[in-house]
Sequence to fold (91 residues):
Amino acid sequence: MPDQGHPLGMRWGRAATPEALPDSVEALFAGVSGQPALVNTRALREYARRHGLPEPVRTRVDTAFIEVPALEAFDGIICIPDTTLSADTPR
Fold:
């Protein structure tokens, strides 16, 4: 979260993320193992069409979804299922 009073300009903390919306990039990664993944957006489009899934029109950023034509806007998408704060980052 942005925080001008924090030395790094933002605070870190654990946050519950909303469930993937059916028309989100995250929905295409549902059921994929908990490992990070890098996918070509052309492959995502083919996967969505082959499985009758809607092509994503939004993606999650932090705890909210933003509308973006992801398969047109990006060449690739990285899915990182979980993140943690580095031990050497000042708190």
The CA atoms of residues 36 and 80 lie 5 Å apart. DSSP finds three helices and four strands in the chain. Residues 41-50 form the longest helix (10 residues).
